[in-house]
Amino acid sequence: MKNPVLWVVLIGISIALIQQGLPVRSQGESQSDNKQMDNITIRQGETLFLSCSQGDFVTHTAWLNRSSILYAGEDKWSVDPRVSLVTLSQEEFTIKIEDVDVTDEGQYICAVQTSSRPRTTSVHIIVQVPPKIVNLSRDLVVNEGSNVTLMCLANGKPEPAIVWRMKSPSDDSLSSDSEVLDIPFISRYRAGVYECTAANDIAVDTQTVELTVNYAPSVSDGRDVGVTLGQRGVLQCEADAVPEADFEWYRDDRRIFNGLDGIEIEAAGALSRLTFFNVSEADYGNYTCVAINKLGSANTSFVLYEIIEPTSSTLLQVLEMTSSDLEQTPLQNDLWEGPGAVQDGNSGTSTVFNPFCLLIAILQLLLKF
Q1: Distance between CA 58 and CA 115 in Å, rounded?
Q2: How much is the mean pLDDT over the chain?
Q3: Gap between the Cα atoms of 63 and 73, Å rounded
Q4: Is the dihedral of CA 88, 35, 10, 20 positive or negative?
Q5: Which of 28, 123, 299, 363 has the fewest CB atoms in 10 Å of its CB?
Q6: Whole-model pTM above 0.70?
Q7: β-strands 118-136, 40-43 pairing
Q8: Residues paired with 69 in a beta bridge
Q9: Looking at 215-229, 257-271, 307-321, which range is the least confident one?
Q10: What whole-number distance in Å separates Cα of residue 10 and Cα of residue 111?
Q11: Could you tell me which residue, 59 or 163, shows the higher pLDDT?
C-alpha cells in the first residue's frame, strides 16, 4: 500500500472493528496481530511515554487514541501541543504526552503495517488525580443549643476518603468518616476549628472551618473588699460570654457612670473594674456588677467595707493596757539570770516580765482594732 494517508484511514477502520470484536482481514486475507499491553497508571500532571516495537519490514506506523490519529510516522496529526515524537526507528516508535489530565485517560493503539499484514498494540491509560476539596461549609456563628451540620465534598481518582475531626481544641471523640459532620444541640465547649481531610493513594487535601458558639454571660462570685478611708479601692467583675459582655455597675439601684464622684470604670475583655481613688465614708456599701450581651445577662454583688488602721495614740493605749494587765512569771534562779531579774530574799526566786508574753498580748489587742 503506497499511500500512507489511505493506510492510516484503513488502520483506523480496522481498529474500530477490532474494538467491536469483529474479524479484521488485511492483504491476502490474513488476520492481523493484536496485542494488549498491561494498563499504565499515571498521575495527573506527569508525562506519559507511549512506546511500541517496530520489527523488520515495517512500511507504515501510527499512534492513535480513542478518537483521533496522534502520529503517522513522523507526521503529527494531533493539534495538541502536549503531544510530541520521541523516537522513530526500525526498532521503536515512541511518543509522549506532557501534563497528563483526566481527559487523556482511555485506550491508545500503536498500528504497524509490515510487508505482510498489519499489527496493533493497545494499552489502556489510567490517570490518577490527587484529592481536592471543592465544597466546604463556611465559617459559622451559631447560638448555644442549635443543631449544626458541616459539609465537605472532594474530587479525586481514586475517590478520596473524607474524615472530619475537631482540631482546636483537640477532641478525638468528635469526628466523622463521611462528608457530613452533625453536631446536635451544640454547647459552648464544641466551639473551635474543625478540619476536613480528603485522602486517596495519591495525596491529601485538608481545609478547616471555624465554628463560633454564642452564649449568655455568666459571672464569677463577687469578692468583698475592705479599704481604709482615703485609700484606693478596686472592685473587679469577671464574665464569661460570647460575644463579649458589656458591663454596668450599680450602687443599690442607682447606676454608676464613669468619672462620676471620682470613680473610674474600665473594661478589658472579660474584666471590668470599678476604681475608687479616694475612698470616703459615703463610698462604703453594696455594689452590683451586671454583664450583658444579646443572649442574656448575669450579675453579682460586692460589699465595700471600712478597715480601721491603728494610730499612734491607739498603740500607746495598747501598751499601757498591756503593762497593767500582764501577769508576772516567777522563774527559778537557775533558769533565769540576767538584767531585769528581781531577787526575793525570802523565797530565793526571781520575778521577771516575760518578753514573749508581752508580744502576744500586744498582738491580741491590736487584732481587736
Answers
A1: 6
A2: 82
A3: 8
A4: negative
A5: 28
A6: no
A7: parallel
A8: 64
A9: 307-321
A10: 11
A11: 163
